[in-house]
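hey can u run this one w/ adenosine-5'-triphosphate bound, need the structure tokens asap thx
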Amino acid sequence: MASSLLEVRGVEKRFGELQALGGVDLTVGAQEFHGLIGPNGSGKSTLLHTIAGGLLPDHGTVSLTGRDITRWAVSSRAAVGMSIKFQIARIFPDLTVYDNVLLALQAGQSLGGLLISRSRRRLAAPVMESLRDFRLDTRADDMAGDLSHGEMQWLEIAMALASHPSMLLLDEPTAGMSPEERRVTGDLLRPIKSSCSILIVEHDLDFIRSFCDVITVLEGGKILAEGTPAEIEKNERVREVYVTRV
Ligand SMILES: Nc1ncnc2c1ncn2[C@@H]1O[C@H](COP(=O)(O)OP(=O)(O)OP(=O)(O)O)[C@@H](O)[C@H]1O
Ligand SMILES: [Mg+2]
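ok here u go:
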């Protein structure tokens, strides 16, 4: 069994009266692609945000490689290998595709300073390498806002991977993509497995089944089931939720 990289223990999160997460335990191993599924509003994005640091849990802990990072700033988490691609695109539409990746590589430096600095030349090779990995090298000089929806998602993933994370959190990266773009997304992500684990939220069950080693099912902020894709497919409680609710 793979050694554990990310450990979530007893995480609870409340928004006013609403208990969005009601005590979640989740473990992601090194070199593991882990799927997080569940009906709308079941707490998937909230869980990802508490892991990434955008939200603080009311109770419980989040650890990465044995370090308790529950209350760490987002930037400190990035320094120990965590990266997230959000559900809503966060690219800079009025900058080129190239400059978006350049910025991700140089997170923390001021925009003006970066675009005229010497690091622009120094980082040319890594930027182009990331763009090639995600089939965007021919779009390098185009404005990011002119990319197709699928290409924008790939740009965001390339940006999330620019820091060479060991733990990548992806919130619905294939939403709105064509079946062919989904297949390509899987192909583009598989090669990173040797160095990076993924926790991925997805509604496309076929994608999740073919992509993930382990699947966790959330319902009403609690874990309904966890197992291999084959185990989850056979699970009666999961079938009931998916047949009746989704
Ligand atoms: N910032 C917030 N303030 C108040 N309520 C929130 C907030 N964020 C999420 N919620 C509520 O918490 C619950 C869980 O939301 P969350 O976005 O985590 O669900 P989800 O599983 O990601 O859903 P979807 O599949 O639609 O993306 C929902 O009832 C949602 O309305
Ligand atoms: Mg969500």
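The longest strand covers residues 4-15. anyway lmk if its weird
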